[in-house]
Design a protein that fits this description.
By secondary structure, the chain is mainly alpha-helical. It is built from eleven helices and no strands. The chain folds into two domains: 12-59; 89-223, Regulator of G-protein Signalling 4, domain 2 (Orthogonal Bundle). 68% of the residues lie in helices and 0% in strands. The protein is elongated and about 100 Å long. The chain crosses the membrane at residues 26-48.
């Protein structure tokens, strides 16, 4: 039978720990320091580490949004971006960009044809020109174009009114990507959508979707482009001119 006086005595190990920690005060101090490190110091370390990586990322020219526009204007890289967008369930953004560029191309084609008809001084109108064939060709063989010697930047202005001959393509674009019930609606700011609607009701211009395109490019730049860079950075550098 155990002696009751001995049973009530704490084990030697507990007494030793108690003496070393000065009655548990040292343990409390260590726990407090650990909690301070985890809750304050560690997040600060992660913040500066992330900031350093972010600065390094944006200082690299290939990581700039200006370079990303070059990627968007390179058909082979745009195809790769589309494949990524499909996996990320955001393919509507890439489709928006492709069709936005098609509209711009058609506007430039219109300006070229309009100038050609004006110089010929004929009574023939542009309504006889087959814009539908140009649209189908653009859809099948997408290629971006920009103002050149044929169409100067001063001639191609986003403030020009949408020609009646091609306005149907602009309205189809709206119902596809802007309308809330559209099959491939993109996430735009409410203010941008209102501006588009107001412009169509007053004085629609060929730049009616420019702000929307800027927002979509920003979304792709932050969500899809980092993935493309991780997968094919060297390939991108060798492809973009």
């Amino acid at each position: 039978m155990l002696d009751k006086s001995n049973a009530n005595l704490p084990p030697r190990a507990i007494l030793t720990i108690f003496n070393i920690t000065k009655g548990g005060k040292l343990v409390y101090a260590l726990i407090s320091l650990y909690m301070f490190f985890v809750s304050i110091t560690l997040p600060i370390i992660h913040y500066y580490k992330s900031k350093s990586l972010k600065n390094k990322y944006f200082q690299n020219p290939i990581c700039s949004i200006h370079y990303f526009y070059k990627v968007l204007n390179t058909p082979s890289l745009l195809n790769e971006l589309r494949e990524i967008a499909i996996k990320e369930f955001s393919v509507e953004n890439v489709l928006f960009w492709e069709n936005y560029e098609i509209l711009r191309n058609m506007s430039m084609e219109y300006l070229l044809e309009y100038r050609s008809f004006s110089q010929q001084e004929t009574s023939q109108t542009l309504r006889s020109f087959d814009f539908e064939a140009i649209y189908k060709q653009q859809r099948m063989n997408y290629y971006p174009i920009s103002p050149t010697d044929d169409i100067t930047n001063s001639e191609y202005s986003s403030s020009l009114p949408i020609p009646q001959e091609i306005i149907s393509y602009y309205t189809s674009f709206y119902h596809m990507f802007i309308d809330f019930n559209g099959p491939a609606v993109v996430g735009l700011q409410e203010k941008t959508i209102k501006n588009i609607i107001n412009e169509f009701c007053t004085y629609p211009t060929i730049g009616v979707y420019d702000q929307a395109a800027h927002e979509v490019v920003e979304m792709m730049y932050h969500s899809l482009y980092p993935i493309l860079l991780r997968q094919n950075q060297k390939h991108i550098m060798n492809t973009v001119k």
